[in-house]
Hints:
alpha+beta, 3-stranded antiparallel sheet
Amino acid sequence: MKKWFGTLLAVLMILGLLVACGPDDAQESAGEGDQSDDQGEVENNDSDNESAEDDNSMPEKPEKLTIWVNAEEKQEEAVNQMAATYTDETGIEIETVPIDMLEQVEKLDVEGPAGNGPDIIFQPHDRIGDLVLRGLVDPVNLGELESDYTEAALSAVTNEGEIWGYPAVTETYALFYNKSLVDEAPATMEDLMAIADEQTNADNEEFGFLMEAANFYFTYPFFSGNGAYVFAEENGVYDIEDIGLNNEGAVQGGELIQSWFDKGYIPQDLTPDIMNGLFKEGKVASVINGPWMVREYQEALGDDLQATILPKLDNGENPKSFVGVKAYLLSYYSENKEWAEDFMAYLTNSENAMLYYEVAGEMPARIDSIEDPAIANDPIYSAFAEQATYGEPMPGVPAMQQVWDPINNGLSFISKGEPVADVLDEAVQTIKDNIAASGATQ
């Protein structure tokens, strides 16, 4: 399995070249020049763990820094552990506030100007372009720390030549399965559908296969694997006027997804909490989800938990999952920018990247972490590494934010039996209208 991590690293380098950048309208960060020199002296793991408190170029230490963490139990636990050690080393109190990362942008838009916002937020890279356009974040200075992160991670957080965050996580999703219910990993969609057919008994809340099938993030592989795409892309440049979510391949993908609901494989009222609960109870044979669920699933299923790449489609193609990077970003409204950057560097250093992996189960964005034997030799994480070689980065342009709601609404209609082609045509038109109304040019 270890070979997939070498392949993953190479693919991440390539994917980095494809991540597009959005407009750069935010104001420049105050005091950003000093931080590059402070962090550029990091040469090894020991110095990587040191704070900047002894550097005379740093301003006076604040009493407190505030970070909005993603509202997920294991991720909160990991950040709280790191925050506690940072406080011990610097004396700076860290307030961690759990807020769903998809809700942080709108909340920052309100709380930031009111003086109630955080110093740091945690976001997926496809939202950076929108955050920059809205002036909610400031660029950061990684200095010599740039060489610690994968090329894909750096490219993902780069916008018009500026770096806008400290990369924390590289991720995609794969197929988890319970080996007490499944003899071997399903290699094709035909295999997976056979499991769904044989093991689904909705009256007993037993299912062969579940996923968030009305969530475009997870269903994208079944569109893209058939030839659909979000925006046409060439050499890392996206054409937001060319949307491929209602072409022939997209209709094929939508019809496949609709068939899962029509056959009763996936219930209409399925939520992530219900899906995860049933899988952990041993009532579901397989689920599509991300590495952030590994630790929680392992606690429930133990050695019965296995993972594999997404099964091949009927056309023989490997489904192309979204590959994303999540990063810590500096709020424009922070009054302690230098120390906020010091804490972000601390959160993503070698030691803490591995701590986050061990506690939260998410793949680090550092080169040394990806190559660490603890990750490279792990049979479950190797599945995510292999799947990433078939993935593609989420478009990191502001226009991407106009895609999610219309296509997710479309998937909801598709799940209820509405004509797939008509639904996708309407969704794409809504996306185009939303992009025009937003004024996004890329």
